[in-house]
Amino acid sequence: MKLIMAVIQDKDSNRLSDALVKADYRATKLASTGGFLKAGNTTFLIGTEDENVDNVMTIIKDNCQSREQLVAPISPMGGNADSYVPYPVEVQVGGATVFVLPVEQFEQF
Ligand code: 2BA
Ligand code: 2BA
């Protein structure tokens, strides 16, 4: 068994949950925050058998898209003026960042 952890954009989260339910995969959604943008994103935990991993990956790929996001300049007011970026910076936020971990034990009580 594997645990698939997928960090995706909030905008894709409902689409992905619907697709997973439709394909009969179980999942848990966690509200998370990106360390860089400090904006909300969604982390999916999907526990599934090894042979389903490729199919789940395909579902994630098909339902999550990469987007450009502008990082607003952070005001130096009350902050550190040395790190002030006076213009918005565009970053490419990926459709999904996915980790696949081995599951040692799985129980449901
Ligand atoms: P939920 O996804 O909200 O599911 C609540 C209950 O609905 C499940 O209870 C199960 O009885 C049923 N259910 C879920 N998905 C289904 C499906 N595709 N078809 C038919 N019935 C379905 P539990 O199995 O006790 O799960 C309780 C909660 O534990 C789940 O809440 C989910 O958040 C998490 N979970 C369960 N299995 C998981 C897994 N393999 N990976 C990740 N999270 C899991
Ligand atoms: P954030 O940390 O908010 O990062 C959003 C996007 O900003 C990243 O997109 C990347 O393009 C850029 N970025 C992140 N850190 C950077 C840095 N130190 N310098 C320059 N640009 C940087 P993605 O790579 O697609 O990541 C999207 C989200 O996935 C991340 O949100 C984070 O929550 C998660 N993530 C990505 N890689 C991870 C990792 N290795 N471990 C844990 N979470 C990760």
TrEMBL record:
<dbReference type="InterPro" id="IPR010375">
    <property type="entry name" value="CdAMP_rec"/>
</dbReference>
<dbReference type="Pfam" id="PF06153">
    <property type="entry name" value="CdAMP_rec"/>
</dbReference>
<protein>
    <submittedName>
        <fullName>Cyclic-di-AMP receptor</fullName>
    </submittedName>
</protein>
<keyword id="KW-0675">Receptor</keyword>
<dbReference type="InterPro" id="IPR011322">
    <property type="entry name" value="N-reg_PII-like_a/b"/>
</dbReference>
<dbReference type="InterPro" id="IPR015867">
    <property type="entry name" value="N-reg_PII/ATP_PRibTrfase_C"/>
</dbReference>
